[in-house]
């Protein structure tokens, strides 16, 4: 099984990141705020539910600022095994640990001149928080196993779902690091609070998923989307549309291709075998009921298969994440990372207890 890539690099000159689309008042205000923030070099702490566009906002801040021609690097702090973290962030010298044969750059060196997004920064272990604070104060890093410091010039952006103050109050996030990172706060509103953006978002996403093709939504589709709570926000909308596109007939997405979870805001149980359908037949959500399963792009098939297996493990483990992770051969952090990527949400607590 391939492990998720914990970080992505956008070097200067690559294709521009997608824009933050939407004409609702909150989105207009957000874009204006990003324009102002981009001009200064201060750290920014971005807060918002999963899939609201935190990474996109960070890319926009970078792209509109003076560092645009230097790298933008995003790292998911929840996805790096703790033992590898220091080498990953600061680089390492040959022989620093077993298996470290070559000199390696860290993320800070790679982002030199540009911006580094620390995604899910509240997942950083306390020991790593101390090391990060030191780097931010001294603007110098030392490779693991190295003896000399190197100067690094990096704009730090960070993202979390609930904001960093919560971690400080809970004692899991250092207050001194909080003050370093939380200089400017940027909050991204959930999609259900800006439903007026849905149409534009659908157009933008469909143009991205099916470039050059004319795809339209049947009239009731937009109404159904507007009635749904989208716990996974724009990322979930992308998933819903990608799946719907596979079932679109003559370029029209109809209501029955939409497969929205029936209980708004709770776990999308559609990926479980429907009652009475043997698991073997229900290997992909919704498809066993359609006779001949359509051929899908492999990436999409694999994503759905991964989603299905993770959901199955969660249900069998009664949403006990550690147990589900063990069954899947993943660490809890890896499981959480994949769940976030696939916009898998656990049901609300009362449904969990209802699960017999
Ligand atoms: N306002 C928006 N306009 C267009 N696409 C968006 C918007 N917000 C989010 N997206 C898309 O939704 C997906 C999730 O966005 P991302 O920035 O990764 O969210 P987060 O980091 O908050 O989980 C990405 O594919 C992104 O391009
Ligand atoms: Mg993200």
UniProtKB/TrEMBL annotation:
Biological process (GO) annotations? regulation of DNA-templated transcription
Q: Where is this region: Disordered?
A: 1-22
Q: Which GO terms describe its molecular function?
A: ATP binding; sequence-specific DNA binding
Q: Which UniProt keywords apply?
A: ATP-binding, DNA-binding, Nucleotide-binding, Transcription, Transcription regulation
Residue intervals of the Sigma-54 factor interaction domain:
20-246
Q: Where is the signal peptide?
A: none
Q: Pfam families, alphabetically? A: AAA_lid_14, HTH_8, Sigma54_activat
Q: Could you identify this protein by its name? A: Sigma-54-dependent Fis family transcriptional regulator
């Amino acid at each position: 099984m391939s492990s998720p890539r914990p970080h992505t690099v956008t070097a200067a000159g690559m294709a521009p990141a997608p824009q933050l689309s939407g004409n609702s008042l909150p989105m207009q205000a957000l874009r204006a705020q990003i324009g102002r923030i981009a001009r200064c070099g201060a750290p920014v702490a971005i807060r918002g539910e999963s899939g609201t566009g935190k990474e996109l906002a960070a890319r926009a801040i970078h792209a509109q600022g003076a560092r645009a021609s230097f790298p933008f690097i995003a790292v998911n702090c929840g996805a790096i095994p703790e033992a590898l973290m220091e080498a990953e962030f600061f680089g390492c010298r040959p022989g620093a640990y077993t298996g470290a044969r070559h000199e390696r750059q860290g993320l800070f060196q790679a982002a030199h001149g540009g911006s580094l997004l620390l995604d899910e920064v509240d997942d950083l272990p306390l020991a790593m928080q101390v090391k990060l604070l030191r780097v931010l104060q001294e603007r110098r890093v030392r490779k693991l196993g190295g003896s000399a410091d190197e100067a690094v010039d990096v704009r730090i952006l960070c993202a979390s779902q609930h904001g960093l103050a919560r971690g400080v109050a809970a004692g899991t996030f250092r207050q001194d690091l909080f003050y370093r990172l939380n200089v400017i706060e940027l909050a991204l509103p959930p999609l259900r609070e800006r439903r007026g953006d849905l149409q534009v978002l659908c157009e933008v996403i469909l143009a991205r998923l099916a470039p050059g093709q004319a795809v339209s939504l049947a009239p009731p589709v937009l109404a159904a989307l507007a009635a749904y709570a989208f716990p996974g926000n724009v990322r979930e909308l992308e998933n819903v549309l990608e799946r719907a596109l596979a079932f679109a007939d003559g370029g029209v997405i109809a209501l029955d291709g939409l497969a929205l979870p029936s209980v708004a805001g709770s776990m999308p149980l559609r990926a479980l075998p429907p009652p009475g359908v043997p698991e073997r037949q229900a290997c992909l959500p919704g498809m066993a009921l359609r006779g001949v399963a359509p051929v899908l792009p492999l990436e999409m098939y694999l994503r759905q298969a991964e989603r299905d297996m993770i959901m199955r493990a969660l249900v069998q483990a009664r949403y006990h994440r550690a147990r589900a992770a063990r069954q899947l051969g993943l660490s809890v952090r890896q499981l959480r990372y994949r769940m976030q990527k696939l916009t898998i949400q656990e049901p609300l607590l009362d449904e969990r207890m209802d699960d017999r």
